[in-house]
Amino acid sequence: METNFNILSIWDGETKARTFFQRLFFRRTKEENKPLSTPKIIGKACEGIVLGGKTIKSVLFSTDMALIENNDADAVLAVYPFAPSPKIMKALIDFSGKPVICGVGGGLTQGKVAIGMAIEAEALGAAAIIVNQPFKNEHIAAIRKKISIPIISSVSVADFSFQDRVDAGVDIFHITGGKNTSKILEHIAYAVPGYPVMATGGKSMDSIESAIESGADAIVLTPPSSGELFKNIMDQYRKGLNFLRK
Questions:
Q1: Mean pLDDT across the chain, nearest whole number?
Q2: How far is residue 135's CA from residue 163's CA, in Å, rounded to a whole number?
């Protein structure tokens, strides 16, 4: 009796599932064979944004080094619900081997601390910095005077002054509006026409395709945690162990 050890698919409906051992032994043969590969539609349909001299179409939203190592996204988005940390920035930039977008402020971090973090991020080699919606435009303007790498602004609502963000020095928008992401993308096309936009694509192919059709130049992918991925594997291990005991 053969036991199938399937890893969870991150984005539904993209590829045919392979066994755990197939993924383990053959994932290094080609870049696209990484266990957590990005949906092909992103590379085919997105225009891309430019970060660190590279065209970026897919961005992995994670600070988990194991997930970063085993995913083939073009860049990494390092944002977390704590104060920004130069140690985390340095570790991810040194480790990932691809452009890293570092969070420097939002609701928790503002003013001089955020400005200092932006300067630190550029010095460490970040491809861009990102600020959350509550971040003040005056602080964006102050950061713009201090760094040369792109500034990205996350926005989660349509009722927002995109032009004021542009005037403050924002280079790229990141739309993360949940079920309203497509509507916000359509709105921003009128508010600031032609401005580079990346959007959170969610965990399903439907939401990714919707974001692309609504004008996203790049897609931010949110993977499951290592715990979620391990649950499926461990369930199969337990079934195998039970079988061996019979």
A1: 84
A2: 15
